[in-house]
Protein: ATP-binding cassette domain-containing protein
Organism: Conexibacter stalactiti
Amino acid sequence: MSLLTLNGVCVRRGRRELLSDASLQVEEQDLVVIRAGRRSGKSTLLQVAAGLIEPDAGSIRFAGFPSVDEARGRSDGLALVRTEFSRAMGSTILDQVAHPRTAFVSPRRAEEEAFALLRRVDGVKLAGEPGRGQTLDHGERMRVGIARALMCRPRLLLVDEPTVGLNGEERDDIVALLRSLAREDGIAVLATTDSVSGFGRWRHLTLEDGVVHGPGPQAPARVVPFPGEQRR
């Protein structure tokens, strides 16, 4: 049984079709990257998977059950990485990371778990930074967002453009971190990108005209080139 299954998903905004018959599967501990251009619908696809957007057609199942909203998805073990920060979640980055657990454990315990996860993503030095994240660059915001999502103890992590704007070394570090989550923590990752550089050992899909293309879960990983891209 697949961990996440999207089948024939369609999302429309007026006359524009953001997703058209989009289908994919993600297995336990899978590493999947979807390559697509700007305004292609890749962010919409992750939001549908996370339960933030209800599709106009098609179905979403997570761990064998319909994932109908974000709360249901999170309780089943699905988390979307967010790099936005809210004043309501606390005055420091440590507070922001701890926030998802404060409803379930004591504030002190939540802070201890948050600190451990910041250490896991190599972000301990960011713990005392202002909670609105205005002092962080994209790579740092991504590390904090990953730590905060891990507070939900996910089986699947959804990450929208984790490497956008990063140089080669920063990009490789973030991709290595995500890969280690599957290898060491058993967490599957579904990411989007406009460039697959650095994602060499992942299963590669593309999103074009609202449809997902690429190998299924059992097929050998390969890069599906964009139209017009030269094969090497």
